[in-house]
Amino acid sequence: MTTPPGSNQPRIDIKRIEADINAIARFGFNEEDRGVYRQGFSPEDMAARQWLRDRMGELGLDHRMDGAGNVIGRYGAEGAGADKPAIVIASHLDSVPAGGIFDGVLGVVAGLEVIRTMQDAGITPNYPIEVIATSEEEGRFGGMLGAQALTGNLTREWLEGAADEHGLALKDAMADAGLDYLEALHAYRRPETLHAFLELHVEQGPVLDTEKTTIGVVEGISGVFKWMVRLKGKADHAGTAPMHLRSDALMGMVDFAHEIPRIIDEEGTDKSRITIGHVALKPGFPHTVPGEAEFTIVGRDLDEEVMTRLADSCRKVLESISRRHGLKFDYEQMSWLAPAYCDEGIVALVERNAKALDYSYKIMPSGAGHDVQFFTALTRTGLIFVPSVGGVSHAPDEWTHWSDIERGAQLLCNCVLELACASEQVTPLEQSIAR
């Protein structure tokens, strides 16, 4: 059995990664706006999944597509090791409309390259390694289907009720892709089959690029709450209603928006975010005072207690503003997702290997959701970021320098080698979920 040499780790080949990313980019690429249109279960998405299976076959991996559409390739350990829990390297292949070429794809392609690198070096792992391209991560149907299926976070009711913004039912989209939606309920992986989960992803934000830092070592995924807020006042004539006698719903919303920095200063942390992302005014006529404002509030933090304080403060401020403007206030909490913490041991592993490679790095949270967050309750997890130029993502001009991709993939490879070549099994779940 071969183990990786201490100071002479096998080197990944960035040209192979670049070729793979460019090949996948062709599936759904739009010449007009230069964006990628590869939404979950679209023909373009399924073609990309078949491309991946072909590459896995060329590497001699056991590969399959499960009932949720996840593509799984397994590089097995020999002998008794073949039955050991697997180290999973995963991310997604689907895109948002007019997306970029790196989001999700980088993590899948880097996983393939880790296996190629091990094969080139003649390294046989003590633990099997699985590369997984999860399905429908971008939320076309309102969830992160592939990761939810693998971690047992699906119900039949949700599968049968999910639909995209155009009214296409998830179960019909899966049928068009040759999948039976009920089979997604059989994709669940039991914790004892998992040794660790690692994901490499572009940051999708400006922090690393702005600070000229090579690697983001992610400590956890921020929790998220989403509200739909309604402020109801009185629609009135814009010319005849005196300013001091109006019940202007828009003014109430604007006053709240101005309070957001204070709420974060008093109740939040440097990891807190509050966003008004969608606004609808009624009646929405230029010469009418808005009688109703409906808008979303999305709050985030890495600490659930802080999330609760932010939410309570938002409610109190809205109540006060509503009294001041003569408005009725109500809201619906549409979702509340608790923070998900990466395993402290895996965070230390990534940090140690980043230091050994002499890469600059930053311990940081992820404000965006990723596949990894669903696995934190099942196994040890880690997430590695590389910089996004200008912080741009979910857009055609999303870009990450190939040199940064090379560093991130090499770090991933070194971490996987350390895990895969360990001689003793670590308990699959050694996390500090509650802090």
TrEMBL record:
User: Metal-binding among the record's keywords?
Assistant: yes
What the entry lists under InterPro entries is as follows:
Amidase_Cbmase, Bact_exopeptidase_dim_dom, Peptidase_M20
What positions does the entry give for Zn(2+) 2 binding? D103, E138, H394
Q: Where is Zn(2+) 1 annotated to bind?
A: H92, D103, H201
Protein's recorded name? Zn-dependent hydrolase
- PANTHER family xrefs: ALLANTOATE AMIDOHYDROLASE (PTHR32494:SF5), ALLANTOATE DEIMINASE-RELATED (PTHR32494)
Q: Which cofactor does it need?
A: Zn(2+)
